[in-house]
Design the sequence.
């Protein structure tokens, strides 16, 4: 858990400074988003070109992921005064296509109950809260209040749960006068409410974490909550505090079976160090979550996919996930100047079942293909009697795909003129995947960032291994077999990688090798 030592924020000033440029020809709404965008050209060193990052300053967890009236909302933990963690607000961005993002004014500010920590948002379709008027249904945000005074005084009850509503699809928010809606009876880490509508019981369900376990609550109106049950004291990984739960139903891809999935972020205690996300597959009967799962399962073995949660109310039923692409081990130390950190690509979560039991895949939304626009460079199989080697102008805005033999060994290396390199290895012979960023660029800002080669066990799905590597200015996302195995990592090469080398068995080949340039999503029209 982080140290919440901080200075007090002057929110009014920030609002004025950032969002005050007026253009008389435009409406207020357009002015505020236009001026938010004009803070930056999104072209600084390391600035992601097709991942969401805030225009400036500190960001951590995605919050309030909800779709409403054609708009995907992305709220996020935001400190608008510095590039290190500070008093938390909810920053806000929207998208209509899950590719391009529009920066919006800050949605939620700290108040007398505390800072605004992580949480979720729902569309209150039946106006159960009574916050709506006539046909206008409210968006309701449910979040944790963190009261610094309480923490500083050494009390344990400083985290409570609050709500706020919006009647203009997220443009402006009103806090509920009866906050907090869930008080605290002395649980030190008591936070990150994820709320969803449970059809079967016609109730709102909330998953909340309480240190080393999850608690479930139900409500008829989002204001009064009843404790239902607890889960997890003796299940899964417990190397650190549990954070950012999410609970949802998914159909098993290969059958008609439906299961419930519980995501739990944990910090520290991830398989390659620091922060990571584990999951449980089981059943939820409206009151309790149960699972037979013995093994700890991880969504991603990279070091930079944390606090990820999924969207409520997605129209086509996909389970869309976004994670924070950082790690509390070094989140405050990464070498960016104007802003800190970005989100993963939005990904679809799917559930599968094999001899290994149930498992989740996470894979970029198909919408991403619209900006991966370059030509397929090598459509024919490429023989590997010699390592495949090519120079490119800039590999830090590309997508690479190929098929290979799951029983053989391969190494894929991206490098630049400075001798910096990122290497991914498929070790079919020992059933392992390795990601080596130890010499990937700037790595010395914290020991664990480049301290060790990351590993994950590999079990092939078919007779070909499907490799996809998506590289932005300061990240690399590796997806194997459609997201069964994933490594998400930040990288900070001082110059873009320009050389790609792939080596493998001398009598082998790479099929459907494809390298594409990815468009920037910033400062470009759709
Ligand atoms: C996870 C987390 C949450 C908390 C938020 C505070 O990264 O620690 O548990 O609500 O960040 O910013």
Sequence:
């Amino acid at each position: 858990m982080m140290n919440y030592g901080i200075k007090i924020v002057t929110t009014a000033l920030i609002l004025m400074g950032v969002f005050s440029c007026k253009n008389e020809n435009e409406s207020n709404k357009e002015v505020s988003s236009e001026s938010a965008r004009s803070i930056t050209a999104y072209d600084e060193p390391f600035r992601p070109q097709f991942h969401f990052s805030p225009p400036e300053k500190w960001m951590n967890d995605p919050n309030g992921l909800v779709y409403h009236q054609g708009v995907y909302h992305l709220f996020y933990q935001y400190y608008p005064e510095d590039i290190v963690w500070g008093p938390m607000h909810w920053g806000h961005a929207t998208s209509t296509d899950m590719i391009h993002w529009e920066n919006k004014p800050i949605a939620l500010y700290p108040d007398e109950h505390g800072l605004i920590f992580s949480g979720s948002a729902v569309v209150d379709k039946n106006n159960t809260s009574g916050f709506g008027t006539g046909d206008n249904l409210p968006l309701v945000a449910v979040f944790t209040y963190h009261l610094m005074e309480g923490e500083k005084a050494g009390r344990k009850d400083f985290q409570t749960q609050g709500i706020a509503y919006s009647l203009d699809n997220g443009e402006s928010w009103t806090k509920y006068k009866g906050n907090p809606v869930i008080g605290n009876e002395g649980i030190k880490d008591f936070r990150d409410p994820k709320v969803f509508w449970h059809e079967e019981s016609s109730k709102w369900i909330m998953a909340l974490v309480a240190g080393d376990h999850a608690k479930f609550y139900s409500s008829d109106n989002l204001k009064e909550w009843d404790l239902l049950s607890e889960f997890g004291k003796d299940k899964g990984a417990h190397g650190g505090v549990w954070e950012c739960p999410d609970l949802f139903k998914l159909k098993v891809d290969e059958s008609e079976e439906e299961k419930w999935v519980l995501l739990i972020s944990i910090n520290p205690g991830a398989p390659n160090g620091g922060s990571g996300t584990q999951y449980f597959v089981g059943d939820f009967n409206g009151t309790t979550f149960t699972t037979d799962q013995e093994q700890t399962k991880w969504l991603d073995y990279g070091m930079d996919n944390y606090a990820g949660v999924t969207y409520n109310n997605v129209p086509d039923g996909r389970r869309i996930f976004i994670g924070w692409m950082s790690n509390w081990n070094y989140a405050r130390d990464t070498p960016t100047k104007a802003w800190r950190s970005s989100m993963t690509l939005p990904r679809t979560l799917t559930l599968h079942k094999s001899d290994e039991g149930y498992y989740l895949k996470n894979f970029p939304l198909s919408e991403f293909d619209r900006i991966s626009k370059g030509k397929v460079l090598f459509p024919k199989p490429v023989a590997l009697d010699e390592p495949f080697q090519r120079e490119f102008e800039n590999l830090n805005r590309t997508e690479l795909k190929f098929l290979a033999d799951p029983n053989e060994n391969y190494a894929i290396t991206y490098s630049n003129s400075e001798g910096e390199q990122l290497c991914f290895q498929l070790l079919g012979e020992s059933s392992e995947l390795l990601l080596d960023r130890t010499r990937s660029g700037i790595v010395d800002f914290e020991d664990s960032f480049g301290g060790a080669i990351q590993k994950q066990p590999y079990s092939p799905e078919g007779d070909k291994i499907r490799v996809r590597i998506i590289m932005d200015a300061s990240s690399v996302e590796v997806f194997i077999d459609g997201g069964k195995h994933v490594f998400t990592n930040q990288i900070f090469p001082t110059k873009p990688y320009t050389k790609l080398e792939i080596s493998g068995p001398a009598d082998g080949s790479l099929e459907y090798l494809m390298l594409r340039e990815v468009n920037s999503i910033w400062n470009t029209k759709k």
